[in-house]
Design brief:
By secondary structure, the chain is mainly alpha-helical. The protein contains 5 helices and 2 strands, in the order ββααααα. This is Sulfurtransferase.
């Protein structure tokens, strides 16, 4: 599988995760989101995407689990949030589907907690 963007082919693994996270950009994120059926990315989508990318790039390739994402977004959004809030944005699991849209490698972790 691969994504086509502006005449460039961006390679992925068999599940649609980028092989090189450095090829990612915001325009590609929207292409991936459309493929995933997420529609137009909102500010809250971007908060999670940017958080996941920051953790991966600046924290030794860390890929946070669902509980860690909830805590970080609760702090960012200034509210107590639950899984429903993040799963409404990324229904196929925020850490995995969000990571895919963020252009990160496929996580091999099993659970969210």
């Amino acid at each position: 599988m691969a994504y086509e963007l502006n005449g460039k082919t961006i390679e992925t693994n068999e599940n649609g995760y980028l092989l090189d996270h450095n090829e990612w950009n915001e325009e590609l994120a929207q292409v991936i989101a459309n493929e995933e059926g997420l529609g137009e990315l909102t500010e809250k989508h971007w908060d999670i995407i940017n958080y996941l990318r920051d953790e991966y790039i600046n924290n030794a390739s860390n890929q946070p689990n669902e509980r860690t994402i909830l805590k970080a977004m609760g702090e960012k959004w200034g509210a107590k949030i639950g899984q429903k809030d993040t799963f409404s944005l990324f229904p196929k699991m925020p850490s995995k589907q969000g990571g895919k849209v963020a252009g990160l490698p496929e996580s091999r972790r099993k659970g969210g907690y």
